[in-house]
Amino acid sequence: DTGVSQDPRHKITKRGQNVTFRCDPISEHNRLYWYRQTLGQGPEFLTYFQNEAQLEKSRLLSDRFSAERPKGSFSTLEIQRTEQGDSAMYLCASSSDRSTYEQYFGPGTRLTVT
Amino acid sequence: RKEVEQDPGPFNVPEGATVAFNCTYSNSASQSFFWYRQDCRKEPKLLMSVYSSGNEDGRFTAQLNRASQYISLLIRDSKLSDSATYLCVVIVNNNAGNMLTFGGGTRLMVKP
Q1: Residues in B touching A69 (Cβ below 8 Å)
Q2: Other beta carbons within 10 Å of B79
Q3: Residue B111 and residue B98: Cα distance in Å, rounded?
Q4: Smallest CA–CA distance from A97 into chain B, residue
Q5: Does the beta-carbon distance from B99 to A44 stay under 8 Å?
């Protein structure tokens, strides 16, 4: 499968724990996005990378959230001191410079904070 | 006020029906417009782009009214497989990474 992959697909954690998610974009795509989706809502933009540079961050991305894309390939999203309000689906998407408007989404990581 | 607003539905229609969804956007600087489809517990996928002149892809027709800041999607001859959530999406600034701004989605259920 050459699409966007995310790991893990599901994560249950206790409040206060740290969690880290991974996204592997389509190999030739240099743009990578993270979105968050809660039940009954559309996805909301969190952050954007072009290659290894993090170029945009939403105000939704509090200081407990950090994202990296160290070699311009896979990306990680870490949430520290998780809160119940962090429970959501975390979606990763990628696109190429040749077709910047079409973003291909991964299957998401569903986070449940108990 | 949300940047992109949609009627959440659900729209329950019989097979073969024609159904239309609208969405409104608040930022007049919005530059690009799309409809995405999201099946239950799946990721969103691009359905079609939306142009001012209107565009058609098989049974699907999308229209953009910039003056009124609304976007529509028309589905003709509905199929059971059209059951999904349809997300209205805009890009506000094409030079800033093309982040997608989603509406809350409209749920469509096509019944036999």
Answers
A1: none
A2: 11
A3: 36
A4: B97
A5: no
- Distance, CA of A16 to CA of B86 (rounded, Å): 35
pLDDT single digits (tens) A76-102:
999 999 999 999 999 999 998 777 678
Chain A contact probe: residue of B98, B101, B106 with most A CBs at under 10 A: B98
Distances, alpha carbon B86 to alpha carbons A45, A72, A76, B11, in Å: 18, 32, 28, 11
Mutation for testing the B interface, residue in A26, A37, A95 having most B CBs under 10 Å? A37
Closest C-alpha among B108, B103, B85 to residue B17: B108
Average pLDDT over chain A, rounded to an integer: 94
Amino acid identity, position B6 = Q
Q: Name the minimum distance, in Å, from the CA of B65 to any CA of chain A.
A: 20
Residues of A in contact with B2 (CB under 8 A): none
Per-residue exposure over A28-38, b if at least 16 CB sit within 10 Å of its own CB, e if not: ebbbbbbbbbe
**Interatomic CA distance for residues B52 and A99, integer angstroms:** 20
Buried b (16+ CB within 10 A) or exposed e, B57-66: eeebbbbbee
Determine the pLDDT at residue B94: 63
pLDDT at A113 over 60: yes
**What tokens appear for A11 in the block?**
């994560």
Q: How far apart are CA B74 and CA A77, in angstroms?
A: 37
Which pLDDT belongs to residue A6?
98
